[in-house]
Amino acid sequence: MLAKSFEKAFDDKDWIFEIKWDGYRAIADVSNDTPLFYSRNGISFLDKFQKISRDFDSQKHKMILDGEIVAYDENGKPSFQLLQQIGDNPNLALVYQVFDLLWLNGHSTEDIPLLQRKELLKEALIETEVIKYCDHIPEKGIDFFNQMKKMKLEGMIAKKANSNYIENHRTTDWLKIKFTDTEEAIICGFTEPRGSRKGFGALILGKYSNGKLIYSGHTGTGFNKESLNQLHERLKKLIIKKSPFETVPKTNMPVTWIKPELVCEIKFSEITKDGIFRHPVFIAIREDKDPEEIKGSTNTNIQTNEKPKEMKATTSSPKKAPHSEKEITLNRHSVKLTNQDKIYFPKDGITKGNVIEYYQSVAEYILPHLKNRPLSLNRFPNGIEAQGFYQKDASDNIPDWIKTTQVYSESNDKYIDYIYCNDKATLAYLNNLGCIDLNPWNSSLPDLEHPDYLVLDLDPSKKNSFDDVIEAALQVNEVLNSIKIKGYCKTSGSTGIHIYIPMGGKYDFDQVKDFAHIVMKQVNEKLPKTTTLERNLQKRDDKKIYLDYLQNRTGQTLASAYSLRPKEGASVSMPLEWDEVKPGLKPTDFTIHNALERIKEKGDLFKSVLGKGIDMMKALELLQNLK
After folding, report:
1. d(CA 160, CA 439)
2. Count of CB atoms within 10 A of residue 160's CB?
3. Where are the domains of the chain?
4. Domain 323-434: top CATH class
5. Does 269 have pLDDT greater than 80?
6. Which of 434, 567, 436 minimizes the C-alpha distance to 115?
7. Average confidence (pLDDT) over 405-431
8. First to last CA, the chain
9. Of 372, 521, 563, 523, nearest to 451 (Cα)?
10. Confidence class of residue 627 from pLDDT cuts 50, 70 and 90?
11. Is-cis flag, bond preceding 35, omega within 30?
């Protein structure tokens, strides 16, 4: 996706702003075993920038990334000239600044709005010394631009927060705003040198207009002795007899014409009405640009940086909010709800507004099970039939009243800013983001190292019936009863059943996981034909229920009790009484339509899950005696 030039910085709540890096734009395709790393015009960067490409092995997800290769000088400032000298300086400080995600784990992300792509990228990308996530700031474009100017960077990129990714297209959804006027031009020839100068005198520059090459000026400055000689050697290999211009420009010195194949970057003071650069200065050769891309305006009266019409509209008086938008006040916080009429469950006609209303109606029951627990956000902003994604890290533009906690992630070697939900306002905000189900940790603040409960997850294969799952759940209950433990059961809202055991925060995750493993082993011994402890999908029997005890690890999450699930029918993960767990029960028995009525009738059947924990040592003694 390409950006249009724009003349000045602006503030806008619907836009985000990034640094304009002075480097090579590059796509990294790590979707297959052999990575690809290439420029906009298809030139491979794998060998040239091995310092970066060898770090692609550290990525755990299959992705296609968009970013910029940046070289830094000794003062930590991006330098395009240094980038061109990579062959002479293998120890150059290089970074691949990744700012967009085009594909993830089998799914295109190009139709997902930009901010959601960036949130997904931030979660999926594993940063290394040479691969970094390119962050942004929302709304405050003028302050950001002034800061970039103080730092003497090239400029900034403004991007519409909800924009889709449109390949090979220059749109007003992305704008580049620079401190100095720079442009690309095609080198079409060179003049003879004057006086003591060697090589050439000036470069003859051109651009395409309506498919024809037109003259756009000449430059003889910006070279040192070495760069002038190196460029002259390249130009000599491209010499042709005839001018590539249809209308041959007049020059003061004889010209040697070349094939119009090399693109250079220049800076200039202005562009005349005839489309000629004034005071152009050579900066560098742009290997990453194709000559066909370098186009002048078809109307020479239009300046390069004229405001796009689309942008003028966005900065005019605000439009009225559509009918499907509203602002509500909850817990003294204002929450903006958007696209309330958007269909989230197409076959059931259930809208985003219906989802928000459901959660508000069950808030007093679900909030105790979410309180102070970091959340993995399972987002479906375009409904359950579109691509969803998990988000752990809170975005930079969340309201300041949303509660978050920083947790160090060993796998990513960074701190992740988790949201937790303690009130109706946060619940509505998360639902408005597209969170159809809510997935809390097993542990809660302030002590995230000691879970409040243990989870036994009965995960069937496609060949198991729900009655098979019920049989396994009843067997779990039998084992628990034999060691005098009360388990609490709920439907997953999908195909499985979850059984919870209160732990009261008395044991760490390893102890809880090991105890869960012992219990599941007992169940597996009782039902060897229909259950398995084999985690590996390739090795697992596809006719057996997986007895998953590994949900009892730091950071693992399951859908909360009373959570909706992103499944046809809008099922709810519903707590059950043990006498309800019998053949004929269906996970689709409890849905958005009848859940509240049932919860009011039964009360919170999962309340004791958050209560006093079991005595694990006493339970292990009883288990030992059974043997």
Report:
1. 30
2. 21
3. 2-178, 182-304, 323-434, 441-627
4. alpha beta
5. no
6. 434
7. 88
8. 66
9. 372
10. low
11. no
The string of pLDDT tens digits covering residues 273-285 is: 788 888 888 988 9
Rounded Cα distance, 575 and 579, in Å: 12
What does DSSP say about strands 255-267 and 281-285: parallel, antiparallel, or unpaired?
antiparallel
Nearest Cα residue to 505 out of 616, 605, 593, 598 = 616
Residue range 442-494, pLDDT digits in tens? 999 999 999 999 999 999 988 899 999 999 999 999 999 999 999 999 999 99
- Is residue 201 within 8 Å of 190, Cβ to Cβ? yes
Res 535: pLDDT: 82
Q: How far apart are CA 334 and CA 401, in angstroms?
A: 10
DSSP tag of 587: G
Q: Looking at domain 441-627, what is its CATH homologous superfamily?
A: DNA primase, PRIM domain (3.90.920.10)
Length of the chain as a residue count: 627
Q: What single-letter amino acid sits at 58?
A: S
CATH no. for 2-178: 3.30.470.30
Q: Answer for the pair 84, 231: CB distance below 8 angstroms, yes or no.
A: no
Distance of alpha carbon 63 from its chain centroid, rounded?
11
What is the reported pLDDT for 309? 42
Amino acid letter for position 535: R
pTM above 0.85, yes or no: no
Residue 161 identity (one-letter amino acid): A
pLDDT digits 0-9 by tens, 195-215: 777 899 999 999 998 888 999
Sign (positive or negative) of CA dihedral 125, 127, 132, 137 = positive
